[in-house]
Amino acid sequence: MSQLDMKMKLKQYEQTVIEYLGAQGGHFIVASDDQTFVGILRTTLLKQLAISGDPLTSVTDPDYILKVIRDTSLRRKHLVVFIERMMQGKDTSMLVRQMKNTFANVKIIILTGETERQRLVLLHEIGADNFISKPISINTLIEKIAFTIKPQGKLGQLIDAAKALVAQGNFETALKAARKILEVKPNSAAGYLVMGDAWQGLGKLDKARESFEQASEHANLYMEPLKKLAELHKLTGDMNERLRYLERLDQLSPLNVERKVDMGEIHVELGNEERAEELFETAVQQATKDALNYIGEISEKIAAVYSSRDPHKAEKYYRQALDAKGSHLDHTDIATFNRLGIALRRQGKWQQAIEEYEKALHITPDDPNLMYNMSMAYAEGRQFDKACSIVMRIRQITPSFGSMDKTLSYNMGIIFSRGRQPADARVLFENALRLDPSFEKAQKALENLES
């Protein structure tokens, strides 16, 4: 795409957002404790797009999100809700489901950093309209919003219009609209999906099934046709066919606990008690894992309250956070191990801190922050040879580690000097002074090396 085409596209996206917030009476609600993202969004609307008035409501407490949406819905026709996937340590999946079930005029954009694909698939299935991975540029942000508000091409607009006809119960006209979609784009899964809805509305279930199957055939990763087919076979009482489509859905989105229960119920009806028991057990395990993750997140939040005030209590809650995860510990828990280690070191329990760092290093063996904290724990225990060998390994794996942080450079320099590695210590002290020429401790340490 040429630079001119890109600029024209951006102008089209900008106009979509401007019209939505102006003539269409739309409004944005952002549920986030990430003030950097909130600031970028506000700047985009007020400065880049020159939106007048107050187009944005910010919410930092997840307990108030539904109330803010309800109150804003009384004044605004349409809403886009930006919501963090994790907010104040709590998974927001249930909130997303509640929003979609309660408010017909809400579009939902999930804000996320790195997260597992299966979790995003589940969020999409229960109602998320789009996703934003942070950090994000202003131009990409505008594009994401525009596509969430409405399709940005002729075909998408035809699909939206056909869906609206189905929602109004105007099934004959919706059929004509679906055929028009298929003329513009033969084998359009969305076109066949609308056609299936229209046939089902007219009571022609065989034709509806054919249309949904066509939709699924032309988009085998598209979950909506499979969900329609499962529901259709529920209406006709064909348990085996319903089960077949539920199983396909489960392969695409395995974290949906309710679907596993539905599948188990069918197996009970079919007399497959052993398979039903397996599914029910899996559902309970997944629900338990989700619940324990939440307990862990709450425990970590409490630990953070105590981290600088009462390291003993911080230790207790960091341990609870890790214990809650049980055998499901992964790279996302490394920060908790680091914080637990710091809480232990503040109590003088440097040996216990090392034990925790070693557990974490089994998960991420080459994490330089973990190794640095472990070296500091050894230094606090006056085990300078061990501390020194760890710092040497850090510098082999990640040579740039600490190069832009005067305190890290100084601390590693102290470890080298106590570990009888003066040449390496000098390099680190000099780097600390390069970053801050007034750093007196580094200057004194360097002088001591040379004396």
Automatic annotation (TrEMBL):
GO biological process, one term: phosphorelay signal transduction system
PROSITE patterns assigned: RESPONSE_REGULATORY (PS50110), TPR (PS50005), TPR_REGION (PS50293)
InterPro entries: CellSynth/LPSAsmb/PSIAsmb, CheY-like_superfamily, Sig_transdc_resp-reg_receiver, TPR-like_helical_dom_sf, TPR_rpt
Keywords assigned by UniProt, alphabetized: Repeat, TPR repeat
Pfam families, A to Z: Response_reg (PF00072), TPR_11 (PF13414), TPR_16 (PF13432)
Domain Response regulatory: 27-149
Placement of TPR repeats on the sequence: 334-367
Record-given protein name: Tetratricopeptide TPR_2 repeat-containing protein
Naturally occurring in which organism (per UniProt): Oleidesulfovibrio alaskensis (strain ATCC BAA-1058 / DSM 17464 / G20)
High-level lineage: Bacteria, Pseudomonadati, Thermodesulfobacteriota, Desulfovibrionia, Desulfovibrionales
